[in-house]
Amino acid sequence: TLLSVVNDVLDFSRLEAGGLALDPAPFDPAAMASSCAGLVAERAEAKGLEIHVRAARGVKPMNLDGPRLSQVLLNFLSNAVKFTAHG
């Protein structure tokens, strides 16, 4: 959406200016990957694409800025769906 694009540009500007604060906290990367995949699944299915998430067993929470990492992965997946040809 347009709001997401604007927020991404603002975040990038903050990052370049050194004003983007990261907030590391215990975070489950496997759950985040599944959540992000779920958010783009409908658009992927409409193009005949499938998204599969496989996480190693026993992955422990990590100290990460979860929302920022989710934002990166969601952008990556959204672009993958957008720029991948049908089926």
UniProtKB/TrEMBL annotation:
What species is given as this protein's source? Answer: Klebsiella pneumoniae
Uppermost EC category: transferase
Q: Name one GO molecular function term.
A: protein histidine kinase activity
Q: Spell out the SUPFAM superfamilies in the cross-references.
A: ATPase domain of HSP90 chaperone/DNA topoisomerase II/histidine kinase
Reaction(s) catalysed by this chain, per the record, are: ATP + protein L-histidine = ADP + protein N-phospho-L-histidine
Keywords of the record:
Kinase, Transferase
The catalytic activity of this protein is classed by the Enzyme Commission as: 2.7.13.3
This protein is called: histidine kinase
